[in-house]
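Q: What changes when tryptophanyl-5'AMP is included in the input?
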Amino acid sequence: MKRIFSGIQPTGEVHIGNYIGAIKQWVELTAEYDCIYCVVDYHAITIEYEISELRHKTLDTAIILMACGLSPDNCKLFVQSHVPEHTELAWIFNCVTPIGELERMTQFKDKSRQHRANINMGLMDYPVLQAADILIYKAGFVPVGEDQVQHIELSREVARKFNSRFGDIFPEPQAILSLAPRILGIDGSGKMSKSMNNYIGLLENGDIIWEKLRTAVTDVNRVRRKDPGNPELCNIYTIHRAFSKDEELIEIDKGCRNASIGCIDCKKILYRNMMEELSPIRERAESLKKDTDYVRDVLKNGAASCREMAKKTMDEVRAGLGIYYPV
Ligand code: TYM
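A: The predicted holo structure follows.
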């Protein structure tokens, strides 16, 4: 069975961009692939964070993933720092990764602008740790949002560089994109993101979600109700594509283009479909929050079995590198 790896940072509230750009397809892909999913806590410390909150956010993020449908029955789920071989492999990958490649990463440039007071080495090295996350399990496929494609390309390059010098150990992983790989913020400006106040939280209550949707930016060229709109330029339509059925999408597309439905009508349909999908997720999250021992067990077992796999890869890597290692 082909293997998948992907990860999410425990940096804040999980939002619908994370859900429809990544997590929703993580769940769907479990039917066809051998899937490994990870809460990447060591990535989260590359920016300023609240020390007392990190462990809670890590557990909360795992709870959301499980509430969305991931479980030990369909995947391995664990916390990155519980398998320390990831960071060990990242060090080795550092030695084959050109600094110039890291300097040109869009996310590094963006985050350096956002966190001017703390442009640390970890921020620049972030994609190398990401490559190690994926390659330590020899995963061939990585379901992510569009913003991560550049990092997956770097992983391919790291694998290529390593293999050509030290032996053919790693596959070159490919990104898998969802139908909605780039969700903009509700203000329509940049990407929906945990660090900006422009997101709809996955577990937010219905009233708040409706208020955010109601005021969210649509096709900016559709100024008056009678103006025809263009769904291709509308962030709300992109979100619809993840939550609404095909027949409804065709109706909305047509109604928007000939102005027979307005943006508010369109948002009401989206709201109804979103609530239908998100309410059960919220309920499952509530009950998992009451049973954190179970969640901890899942993460512990996930880490134990991933660690076995990671250790095997590290044995091959050390042999390839010519490292003296006591047997
Ligand atoms: P993170 O936590 O920033 O994002 C988690 C996933 O959500 C996707 N995403 C979006 N998709 C569509 N529209 C948006 N507005 C949006 N915002 C976020 C991201 O693309 C991502 O798939 N670097 C990774 C974490 C990571 C990782 C890995 C991923 C660490 N190691 C190895 C894959 C493989 C990240 O962006 O996390």
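Observations recorded in class: The longest strand covers residues 3-8.
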